[in-house]
Amino acid sequence: MIRSKLLLLASLSAVALAQAPTAKEIEKVFTDAHALYLDLHENPELSAHETQTAAKLATRLRTSGYDVTEHVGGTGIVAVLRNGEGPAIMLRTELDALPVEEKTGLPYASKVRTKDDAERDVPVMHACGHDLHMAALLGTAEVMARSKDTWHGTLVLIGQPAEETISGAEGMIRDGLFTRFPKPDVAVALHVSNDLPAGMVSVTPGIYNTNSDSIRITIYGKGGHGALPHTAVDPIVIAARTILTLQTITSREIKPGETAVVTVGYIHAGTKNNIIPDRAEMGLTVRTFKPEVRKQILAAITRITKAEAAAAGAPREPAIERYEGTDAVYNDPALAQRLRSPLEAALGKDKVVLAEPITPSEDFSYFVEQGVPGFYFSLGGADPEKFAQAKAAGTTLPSNHSPLFAPDVDPALRTGIMAEVAVLRNLLNTPVEDLRKLTATPQP
Ligand SMILES: [Zn+2]
Ligand SMILES: [Zn+2]
Description:
- This protein is of the alpha+beta class.
- It contains 12 helices and 18 strands.
- The strands form 5 sheets. It has an 8-stranded mixed β-sheet with strand order 1-2-6-3-7-18-8-17, with helices on both faces. Strands 12-14-10-15 form a 4-stranded antiparallel β-sheet, with helices on one face.
- A hairpin with a 3-residue loop joins strand 1 and strand 2.
- Helix 2 (about 25-40) runs antiparallel to helix 4 and helix 2 (about 25-40) crosses helix 11.
- The longest helix is centred in the C-terminal third of the chain and has 21 residues, at about 290-310.
- The termini are far apart.
């Protein structure tokens, strides 16, 4: 009798311990998180140069009791909080801002200018909301450190540099993120946007965004006098034909209904009207959701480019170089479905919605590709009133990367902390074996 009562009490308290964060818990850390937000927003730093940003976050995390290592993969930081047996869960924020001139007119708007890597004078702005992600991570860190009786395991918080240049995640992994520090059983991140009002989050099970590939093509011809075309091989004509044929990939080769974008964003050739140049260069961006569609498109680009050059009798095969690329962020479907309920418990059932995949890209995929199941979700950033007005007028609010991007900080930051704590507590109350069973389906 006594034993069964004890067991019941234990299971009841386990449920209570795994409960949603309260508004009171968030209130206690909000002032600190908000102050960090304002400071970071006024003092943004470009990708791979986030020295002050990383130092500020590191100092605060140390004060909250985390074991902090700096300079991981450049300016990256790793903060670990050990709390007994249990899974290791990673939460990631980015550190970097963008070369954008802020035009929000906010009292805390950035006036920062700096030299970029090419020594050009550029403005700097947190136009992607990474300052909000850092502030939310700090608030979450403090809540988790103050409530160690509500979870067990290891919490790994990371500040990742250079997300905007798609190099920071890879840099941290190369510098031993998953060997020098506990390798997580799940990696979590969020991103703020104006696609959703503040106070809400959205979840996308499966593929979250697109694969992105940047391709540079150099077509070689034979230079000569513009009046003597029979003595030359004109690379401009080859390029023109190539561009048109490339546009048949999505319209003629890819199965209707599949997401596929092939854009030729630039073409450079020639110097003067009466000279046939000896080469033409063009730059492409390719966006896809499915790996097989991506493979099909990349192969088609190579085949078409080579064939058009051969058809024109080009003296050399074109050079085709994939110089940048990132894979789609994949949300483990079982994990995403499961984490909806703690989010709903914390924010309210009507505040958690399912969303379609989006086309911008992200390097969070590098963590997932190391065999770490990922949960990447969206945080509403729009002022709810302005969002409703825009919707009624059939317009949209300024997107991320816009000089006018201005999230409704107060509710968005509170919701960000609430959501992160809810997700982390749920994961850090799940036995490792159960997490592994849950996330056993491999990425397609
Ligand atoms: Zn961005
Ligand atoms: Zn971003």
